[in-house]
Amino acid sequence: MPHRDGFQNSLSFTISLCLVFTIAVAAARFWIRRGSYGIDDAIIAFGTVTSLVRTGLNYSALQLGMGQPAQSFSTGEALTNLNDLSFASMIMFLVSLYTTKCATIAFLSRVTSSTEWTLLYHVFSGIIGFVGLSSVLLATVGCTASSGFYWNVYGNLHSCPAQGIRWQVITGLDVCTEVLILALPVHLVWNLHMRRTKKIMLTAAFCIRIPVLLLSIGRSMSVAELQQPQIDVGLQSALVAIWMDVELAIALAASTISALKTFTENFNIGFGLGFTRGRLEQRYDMSERTRPAAKHSEKDEAIVAVQFEVCDKSSMSC
């Protein structure tokens, strides 16, 4: 890798690594879920495309000096072009991030047998979509290309007012939606008749989104540094971009891993195995809501295991 000033080498490495990781995850999902695609796959495909668009924008921004000290692009056409690329890249980040959240809820709606909860998941998905759109508007309204470099938060006090506060609110909304997504699978799994250890293992399939929440907080702290007058905007904005790239890559992977058959079938209880090639065989069994309550026992667990059994050969039916 050629020597570059500032954080350009680190930024270039992160962008490339996240690109390879994202493509690998997308390819794995495409192959493993072939023949049983659903709305959640379509949503995550859109999120992957927007992520790749963001990657292209970041590579272009690198060529214009992104990651270098601010004095290297403080004026002129290069600054205008860099600002346009950074602005568009930031929008693609928010769109793709919230797409992964909607994809996770869409997956949950596919695998619950309760009509009531399916409808509720759709409502949650609409709320998260609205929050995502609100975040984009919050980050962009009143901030134009003529405002100067977008990430010059301290310098944009008048041309893009309250930018630091805006990003604190954006992070707060991000964290709240992540907590909601982490809580929903817990409720789904805890209504099943099975051992507590198995419930914990199933919940862990969705807890892989916890790093996304932590990365969101780290990104917010990095953006907050841009409010300090002594901070080099060129270098600090590169760190913000790195936080965003890693967060987005992990979010895409988390939405995929929790939905992959090869991940869930290891639990040997049928969780997530309702998707056979070519058709949806069956959904999760919400024991508390779809049948009369029964005392938890080894016999109950055996019955549930039989109910969850799924055929994986197209020539056979369950």
From TrEMBL:
Residues 28-263 form the Rhodopsin domain. It comes from the Eukaryota. It holds the Pfam family Fung_rhodopsin. Keywords: Membrane, Transmembrane, Transmembrane helix. The chain crosses the membrane at residues 12-32, 44-65, 85-108, 120-153, 165-188, 200-218, 238-260. The keyword Iron does not apply. The keyword Transmembrane applies. PANTHER family: INTEGRAL MEMBRANE PROTEIN (PTHR39614). This is Rhodopsin domain-containing protein. It comes from Dissoconium aciculare CBS 342.82.
